[in-house]
Automatic annotation (TrEMBL):
The protein's name in its UniProt record: Acetyltransferase-like isoleucine patch superfamily enzyme
GO molecular function, one term: transferase activity
Gene3D superfamilies noted in UniProt: Hexapeptide repeat proteins
Annotated organism of origin: Marinobacter nauticus
KW Flavoprotein (keyword) present: no
Length: 242
């Protein structure tokens, strides 16, 4: 407990340059090039790789934090509960995200949130970690209002209810649109795009585009789709316009 209190005090100090040194004295493993802003961080183990960073006004009270090189947690995120966080190189949690695990006895003893290389949780998403959530490489939870659930209940006719948990596992190269809800136990294959406002309650096993009303698979060729748009080059950036 004392280690956690001291960790929180050091992380909230205004002098970021000495934080790695002081945290390493407590037994953490923080690169001298890592940066920690004004955030409250309570963890038994903190590992920050080269150029990893945690921004300002985050509240993080979890079991273990591991950010590989160039992984980033930006600003104003709330992470709380008995789970581990692993962020691989160049992954990012941007801002105003709620990532929690309830302090209850019925769930598995510990879960984890894993972000693969170049994966993103953008803004205003909510992730439940009663069970683990695994994102592969190049996964984007885009836009506002995405929900990922790993637990639910089955109610019988005698007013009993039964907990059901399930890991959520996303493959590589996946884009999830705003206000999508992913239910417990869902697996999503590589190379999948999910349109906005969809509810995913079953596995998506085939690459391609999925939309709601009702959820269905559409044949999708990304290069053919881009050819229907106007390519715009602005200075060093390139984008496409309808």
């Amino acid at each position: 407990m004392m280690k956690k209190i001291l960790t929180a005090c050091i992380c909230f100090m205004p002098f970021s340059s000495i934080k790695p040194f002081l945290l390493n004295l407590l037994g953490h493993k923080v690169s001298k090039n890592a940066k920690i802003g004004l955030s409250i961080i309570v963890a038994q183990k903190l590992v920050l790789g080269n150029s990893a960073s945690i921004g300002h006004l985050n509240f993080i009270s979890i079991s273990k934090i591991c950010l590989k090189s160039n992984a980033r947690i930006r600003n104003v995120n709330y992470l709380k509960g008995n789970f581990d966080l692993l962020m691989k190189s160049f992954s990012i949690i941007i801002n105003f995200n709620l990532i929690t695990r309830g302090s209850v006895d019925w769930a598995p003893p510990c879960s984890k949130l894993v972000l693969g290389k170049n994966s993103q949780i953008t803004s205003f998403s909510s992730i439940d970690l009663a069970a683990s959530v695994i994102l592969g490489n190049d996964v984007v939870l885009a836009g506002k209002g995405i929900q990922v659930w790993t637990h639910g209940f089955v109610h019988d006719y005698n007013r009993n209810r039964y907990l059901v948990t399930g890991k959520v596992i996303l493959g590589n190269n996946i884009y999830i649109g705003a206000r999508t809800c992913i239910n417990p136990g869902v697996r999503i294959a590589d190379d999948v795009t999910v349109g906005v406002n969809a509810t995913i309650s079953k596995n998506l096993n085939r690459p391609g585009l999925y939309v709601s009303h009702a959820l269905r698979h559409l044949e999708f060729n990304p290069h053919q789709r881009l050819e229907s748009f106007q390519r715009v080059i602005n200075n060093e950036s390139t984008y496409y316009q309808k």
